[in-house]
Write a structure and sequence with these properties.
The chain has one domain. Helices cover about 75% and strands about 0% of the residues. It is built from three helices and no strands. It starts with 10 loop residues before the first helix and ends with a helix.
Length: about 80
């Protein structure tokens, strides 16, 4: 990276960085959580519980950003005379 600021609220920036849209990124994180849950055992899997918690927090953050972005785009369309 060249020190440029990346605007992660824009899906185009997400695609440029990750190679897929934010919604796909969320799906990938959800699949990872599903997989980690299959690894849980009664003992010695605290680190997996922690990883699941971290990923679930990230999923919520990304969903919130995506919902905000969609709402902003919809209102912008409305106010520009398109809706």
């Amino acid at each position: 990276m060249t020190g440029e600021k990346i605007d992660f609220t824009k899906d185009s920036e997400y695609i440029r960085l990750y190679g897929h849209p934010k919604s796909v990124h969320i799906e990938i994180l959800e699949k990872e959580v599903e997989h980690l849950k299959t690894l849980l055992r009664e003992h010695a899997t605290g680190h997996i519980h922690t990883a699941i918690g971290v990923l679930e927090t990230r999923i919520k953050e990304e969903r919130d950003k995506l919902n905000l972005e969609n709402a902003t785009n919809n209102w912008g369309h409305f106010f520009s005379g398109g809706g």
